[in-house]
Every structure is written in structure tokens, then in C-alpha cells.
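[Discussion] Sanity-checking designs against the backbone

I'm trying to build intuition for which residues belong where. Below is a C-alpha cell string of 518 positions. I'd appreciate it if someone posts a full sequence so I can compare it with mine line by line.
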């Protein structure tokens, strides 16, 4: 007597669908598919981390345009960023793989151009991600430097200012801890991701309320929404030019949401939940980020003093805002230092999520043979974690911070490089979608319908615009100490990618390859 097999549960049916869809795209399931839509969203939301981006580049926003640029420019950037995110979400729904952007470029550019499209997109994406992790973790090291300074008396009270070598050591320890955490199973990473998202959300609400409430002097609404700061040490006097440079804070913050795409091979119902993760991470970040900017800016009174290297925080504007708010009311800045630790922990989680994302990108890119020693980097251990890719990402991010020991100005371009390179990688598959595949593209469950091409062109044109704008000089006269290194670095990356293709890769790299076997 034969027994009938019980019908599959909803979870088993979904897993079978995910595995089958991945096989259709040419890959077998190697990573553990454990992430829910909440977990997928949490990773992107944590990588975007408004506490990280706004805090790190608040000085830039304050110097170039000030309150008006930050509060109103946030939504200008946000609207165009949403166009990019919607276009990416649509493509993610059709091709839910860890390779994300470079795989999309290969599938959308046609057989003739697929290998080159995948090559250039993949390298811009992975280098931009490594630069992003380096930038995030180094910004945390710099914030710890300021916290230690304020905790030991401040810049004007004999406080301890860590040397550039100590800051680099902080950076190394942070990266080491992130690599250890990312060596854990996806179950743990899912837990950390959700906790990090909650920390970011609650942290924003605590700070946006606490800082202006505690401050004894507050700015007016007119100042916060309309004051346009043209007083900068960069000798730039054009209002439009100043406004554009001030947008970097917003655009640097609103990036990293491709993490949802890179986690799709570990996400249930990936063709739906991956796109939801991308869009919801952008949308919620827009809302809570604006609240954070408002809360901090209402406590701003004297912009030149906040930017002065002679203040207690050594010119770190947000740290000085927090410190002064509590010192003015309670006679000491301990509460402000505690608030800075709230931000520091958020930045720590942001770096953790960034490494999770770029290790999956490294895994996928090496799985398709695009990297030197590819067979090593796509190894998956017994926990179903791409362990070698994790440690490679940590090592490269460590090396990328070495320029800080020679020139902090050169390293500060890392934020621009991370933003520009990643956004170029975002735009390339969208460009191929609207130019080469507008008739052949078969959308997944999430699609933009008749607005797909229009939104796609808006996204591409925005990326082209910011690529030019963020390559402009940020100070005059231009010297080796004031040079904007972004076009140098991005141009160097493009030259490397192009030459490596012409000299070598065109002979052996065929784009995404199946790992299904015979």
C-alpha cells in the first residue's frame, strides 16, 4: 500500500518557486534562503542609514547652502533617487540574483554586448561598494576620535586628539569585527539586520526630539527652511554651484539600497520581496532622514562657529551641536556624548550591512569568473556563508583607507567615489533596459507598466547629472590640497576596467555563467 505524500506547505511551495526561478536564471541554490521581506528591507535600510550619511556629511551640507539646501534639497535628491530605485526594483523582480546589477546588464544588453556590459557594471558596483564600506567604517573611526576628544575635555580643554595612525587602527578593528559578524550564519545576520533597522529608526526619533528640546537656543522655522548659507571657505560664490555641492550629503546618504538585490538569493519570494526591500528602504529613509535633519538644524545658530576647527569638537559640526545643546542646559556635555554614541552604533551597523552586501556581490561576481582567483572567493562554508568573500571585502576596505595616512583630503573623496561609482553601476542596467531591451524585457511581478521607460530615462539622466556635478572643484584656487579627487578616482577606475577588458577579459570573460552542471 502506497501512501500519498502530504501536500507542500506554503513555505515549501514558495521555496520551490524561488529555487526554480533561480535555476531558470542559470544558478543552483547554494546560499540559505532565510530572509523575510522585513529582513531584506532591514539590510538596505541599515546600509542607507540616515544617521550615518547625514552625520558624516553634515559639515558639507552646512557649508554649502546650509539649512535650505539640506531641508529642501533632501527631497529634490529623494525624488530622483526614488526614480532610480523604482527602475532597479522592476529589473530586480525580473532577475532576482545575488549578482544584481551586473547580471541585469548582461541580460538586458543583448548577446553581443552582454560580457562587456556585465564586466563594466560589475567592477563599478564592486569597487563602489568596497569604497562605501571603507568610507563608512572610517567615518565611524573619525567619530570615535571626536567622542574621545570631547570625553577628555574637548579641543579647548586639553582633550586627547587621536593621531591619524590611531584613527586608522580604529578603522582596522571595526573592519575586523564586521568580518567576524559576517562570518556567522544568515540567521544571525537577519537578527542583527532587523535590530539595526530598529536602532536606526528609534535613534532618529530620540535625537530629532531630544536635541532641539534640550537646546536653550533654537533656530526659527524661517531659518531652518529658507536660510541659504553662502559663507564658505571654498571661495565659491555662485548660489547654484553652492546648492549643487550641498546635495552631496543627501545623495551620499541615499545610496546602498542595491543591498536588497544582492540578498535576493537568501530572500523568500525574492521576485516580490527584493523590489519591496529596495523601494521601502528608500521611502522610509526619506521620511526619517528629513526628521533627523530638521531636529538637528533647529539647534543650529552659529554656522561659522560649528564649522570652525577651534570649537570643542574640532570642527565636527553635529558633534558640536549635540555637545553645546546639553552643555548650555546642564553645564556639561555628557548627554551630547551619549547621543553621539547612539549615532556611532548606527554607523557600526551600517558598515556591517555594507559588508554583508558587498561580500554577496563578490561571491556572485567571482562565481561567474570575473575576479582574479575567482574559485577561491565564491566558496561557501558549512554555514552557507561566502566566507572568503567576506574577508576579501574586509581586507580591500582596509587597504582603501591607507591614503588617509598621507592625505586626508584624498581619502575624503572616498565618499564621492563611493556615491558616483555605485550610481553609475545603478544606471547602466537601467540604460540598457530603456535603450536595448524596451521591447524584449519581460517584467516580473513588480513592474512600472507604461511608465517604465519614462521613469528609467529620468533615473539615467539624474545619474549622468550627479556624476558631472560631483566631479566639479569644491574649492578655489585648485591645488593638490583642495583638488576634488572624484574624477581622478572614477576616471582611473574606468581606465582600469576598459584596459583590462581590451587587453585580457574580452578573450575569456563571457558574462554570467551557469553553475548547474551537466
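Best answer:
Here's mine. Compare freely.
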Amino acid at each position: 500500500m502506497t501512501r500519498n505524500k502530504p501536500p507542500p506547505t506554503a513555505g515549501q511551495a514558495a521555496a520551490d518557486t524561488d529555487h526554480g526561478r533561480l535555476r531558470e536564471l542559470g544558478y543552483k541554490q547554494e546560499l540559505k534562503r532565510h530572509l523575510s521581506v522585513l529582513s531584506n528591507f532591514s539590510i538596505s535600510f541599515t546600509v542607507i542609514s540616515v544617521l550615518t550619511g547625514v552625520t558624516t556629511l553634515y559639515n558639507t551640507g552646512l557649508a554649502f547652502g546650509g539649512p535650505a539646501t539640506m531641508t529642501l534639497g533632501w527631497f529634490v535628491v529623494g525624488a530622483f533617487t526614488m526614480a532610480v530605485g523604482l527602475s532597479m526594483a522592476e529589473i530586480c523582480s525580473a532577475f532576482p540574483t545575488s549578482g544584481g546589477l551586473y547580471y541585469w546588464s548582461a541580460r538586458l544588453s543583448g548577446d553581443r554586448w552582454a560580457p562587456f556590459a556585465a564586466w563594466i557594471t560589475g567592477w563599478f558596483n564592486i569597487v563602489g561598494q568596497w569604497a562605501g564600506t571603507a568610507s563608512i567604517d572610517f567615518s565611524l573611526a573619525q567619530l570615535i576620535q571626536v567622542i574621545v576628544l570631547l570625553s577628555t575635555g574637548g579641543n579647548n580643554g586639553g582633550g586627547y586628539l587621536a593621531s591619524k595612525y590611531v584613527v586608522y587602527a580604529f578603522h582596522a578593528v571595526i573592519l575586523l569585527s564586521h568580518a567576524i559578524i559576517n562570518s556567522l550564519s544568515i540567521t544571525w545576520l537577519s537578527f542583527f539586520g532587523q535590530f539595526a533597522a530598529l536602532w536606526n529608526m528609534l535613534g532618529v526619533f530620540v535625537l530629532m526630539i531630544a536635541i532641539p528640546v534640550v537646546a536653550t537656543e533654537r533656530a526659527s522655522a524661517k531659518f531652518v527652511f529658507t536660510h541659504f548659507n553662502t559663507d564658505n571657505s571654498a571661495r565659491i560664490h555662485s548660489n547654484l554651484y553652492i546648492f549643487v555641492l550641498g546635495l552631496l550629503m543627501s545623495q551620499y546618504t541615499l545610496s546602498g539600497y542595491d543591498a536588497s538585490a544582492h540578498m535576493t538569493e537568501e530572500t523568500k519570494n525574492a521576485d516580490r520581496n527584493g523590489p519591496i526591500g529596495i523601494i521601502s528602504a528608500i521611502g522610509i529613509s526619506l521620511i526619517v532622514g528629513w526628521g533627523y535633519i530638521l531636529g538637528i538644524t533647529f539647534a543650529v545658530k552659529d554656522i561659522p562657529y560649528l564649522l570652525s576647527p577651534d570649537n570643542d569638537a574640532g570642527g565636527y559640526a553635529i558633534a558640536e551641536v549635540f555637545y553645546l545643546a546639553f552643555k548650555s542646559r546642564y553645564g556639561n556635555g555628557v548627554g551630547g556624548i551619549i547621543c553621539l554614541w547612539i549615532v556611532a552604533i548606527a554607523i557600526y551597523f551600517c558598515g556591517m550591512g555594507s559588508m554583508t552586501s558587498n561580500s554577496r556581490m563578490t561571491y556572485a561576481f567571482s562565481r561567474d569568473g570575473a575576479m582574479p582567483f575567482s574559485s577561491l572567493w565564491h566558496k561557501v562554508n558549512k554555514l552557507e556563508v561566502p566566507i572568503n568573500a567576506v574577508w576579501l571585502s574586509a581586507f580591500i576596505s582596509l587597504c582603501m583607507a591607507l591614503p588617509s595616512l598621507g592625505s586626508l583630503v584624498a581619502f575624503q573623496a572616498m565618499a564621492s567615489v563611493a556615491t558616483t561609482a555605485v550610481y553609475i553601476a545603478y544606471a547602466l542596467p537601467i540604460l540598457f533596459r530603456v535603450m536595448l531591451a524596451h521591447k524584449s524585457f519581460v517584467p516580473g511581478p513588480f513592474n512600472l507598466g507604461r511608465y517604465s521607460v519614462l521613469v528609467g530615462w529620468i533615473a539615467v539622466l539624474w545619474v549622468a547629472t550627479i556624476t558631472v556635478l560631483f566631479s566639479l572643484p569644491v574649492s578655489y584656487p585648485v591645488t593638490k590640497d583642495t583638488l576634488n579627487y572624484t574624477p581622478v578616482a572614477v576616471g582611473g577606475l574606468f581606465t582600469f576596467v576598459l584596459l583590462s577588458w581590451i587587453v585580457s577579459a574580452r578573450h575569456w570573460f563571457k558574462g554570467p555563467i551557469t553553475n548547474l552542471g551537466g
